[in-house]
Design brief:
- There is one protein chain.
- The protein is α/β, with parallel strands linked by helices and 358 residues long.
- The strands form 3 sheets. Strands 3-2-1-4-5-6-10 form a 7-stranded parallel sheet, sandwiched between helices.
- The protein has a domain of 229 residues: Rossmann fold, CATH 3.40.50.720.
- Helix content is 42%, strand content 16%.
- Helix 1 links the parallel strand 1 and strand 2.
- The protein starts with a strand and ends in an 18-residue tail after the last helix.
- Helix 7 packs across helix 9 and helix 9 crosses helix 11.
- The model has no long low-confidence stretch (mean pLDDT 97).
- The protein contains 12 helices and 12 strands.
- The protein binds nicotinamide-adenine-dinucleotide and thymidine-5'-diphosphate.
- Nicotinamide-adenine-dinucleotide (NAD) binds next to helix 1, helix 4, strand 5 and strand 7.
């Protein structure tokens, strides 16, 4: 197949492309605008495969997207391009509405026109795979799991924009019969993650000897999925998923945020002790909570296991150790990002009113 991957210079998209080029014979067209979160270095040397091309395009640019479909005649789309950080969506929701909702509409519109022009055999094999998040389901309390049937109830501008895009994708299937498939996954972690997210931010703050900000009391729970497992699952959903269906993808690794940060601290104590030997956990600092902070996300991943035979292969402790070791060994990757793009400052509090005023 020739697969058009949007957002292929981002964290998960680059893992998908590395996987496609290393473990399959598929051809890849990477469509990415190259926002602050993108880094083509995450792909290594994909041109060496002879099966890779890159188009710097904003997915909201309808003529450019239509032209890319005509030029490359893809067999499938994997749509990952998005604004992806909850805290940035609180500070500036407009870009999330534009890219995540309007951009998905532009892609669907172009894909539909292109799909309608395909001969019947290629048209029935065509897939539009939309990659989404478990955050569309809102928050759980201490019990329960998100299934594919859980009603949508997003909290943040980010999750609301992803929920909107999921609805558009489903509508394009139900109304126009575009062969779509949707996946909703839990929090990803692993190599090449932009250092605004909890795990890389904590690792790099440990290295710099800076405070490790934990929002609220640190008792919020996330399920963690190693990014390379996610890439494997996504290709499985694309190639074997049933048209019109959605699949939840989880890591079977629920942790409180404070447990995640403490595990990173202990791993850093072993792999990169501080001068003087003080524990990294001394740097943990509880800070003002995120507005609208969802308490818990947890996934029932039985459908993808039952129907597509996918289960994560990397447990959290192994994946976290690999991730910490990767950041320690790859300063040349993250140093320019920290110096030029994002220095670790707190995001996600602007424009939010204090709830309790004295
Ligand atoms: P990321 O922020 O690391 O990368 C996003 C990529 O999309 C970047 O390369 C960026 O340049 C590109 N992009 C952004 N706006 C664009 C536009 N207008 N046109 C073209 N390209 C554009 O994100 P990620 O963590 O790799 O997430 C990928 C997808 O997976 C997103 O759709 C996200 O909602 C979803 N997801 C992520 C997680 C997670 O834990 N990271 C969890 C669940 C779902
Ligand atoms: P994040 O990595 O931003 O992912 P998401 O908001 O999509 O779950 O945050 C993961 C969890 O960690 C979330 O509950 C917020 C919390 N968090 C902190 O406690 N401190 C931080 O500095 C960051 C960035 C997040």
């Amino acid at each position: 197949m020739k697969i058009l991957v949007t957002g292929g210079a981002g964290f998960i998209g680059s893992a998908v492309i590395r996987h496609l080029l290393a473990a399959t014979d598929h051809h890849v067209v990477n469509v990415d605008k190259l926002t602050y979160a993108a880094d083509l270095r995450s792909l290594g040397t994909p041109e060496a495969s002879g099966r890779y091309s890159f188009e710097q395009i904003d997915i909201c640019d309808a003529p450019a997207i239509r032209a890319a479909f005509e030029r490359h005649a893809p067999d499938a789309i994997m749509h990952l391009a998005a604004e992806s950080h909850v805290d940035r969506s609180i500070d500036g929701p407009g870009e999330f509405v534009r890219t995540n909702i309007l951009g998905t509409y532009v892609l669907l519109d172009a894909a539909l026109a292109y799909w309608r022009g395909l001969e019947p055999e290629r048209a029935s094999a065509f897939r539009f795979h939309h990659i989404s998040t478990d955050e569309v389901f809102g928050e759980l309390d201490a019990t329960g799991l998100f299934t594919e049937e859980t009603p949508y109830d997003p909290s943040s501008p980010y999750s609301a924009s992803k929920a909107s895009s999921d609805h558009l994708v489903r509508a394009w299937h139900r109304t126009y019969k575009l062969p779509t498939v949707v996946s909703n996954c839990s929090n990803n972690y692993g190599p090449y993650q932009f250092p605004e997210k909890l795990i890389p931010l904590t690792i790099l703050n440990c290295l710099a000897g800076k405070p490790l900000p934990v929002y609220g009391t640190g008792t919020n729970v996330r399920d963690w999925l190693f990014v390379e497992d996610h890439a494997t699952a996504l290709v499985r959903v694309l190639t074997e998923g049933k048209v019109g269906e959605s699949y939840n993808i989880g890591g079977n690794s629920e942790r409180t945020n404070i447990a995640v940060v403490e595990t990173i601290c202990r791993t850093m104590d072993r792999l990169h002790p501080r001068a003087g030997g003080a524990p990294h956990a001394e740097l943990i600092t509880f800070v003002r909570d995120r507005p609208g902070h969802d308490f818990r996300y947890a996934i029932d991943a039985s459908k993808i296991k039952r129907e597509l035979g996918f289960e994560p292969s990397v447990d959290f402790d192994t994946g976290l150790e690999r991730t910490v070791a990767w950041y320690l060994a790859n300063e040349d990757w993250w140093r320019p990002l920290v110096e030029r793009q994002y220095g670790g400052e707190r995001l996600g509090l602007s424009g939010v009113r204090e709830t309790a005023k004295k």
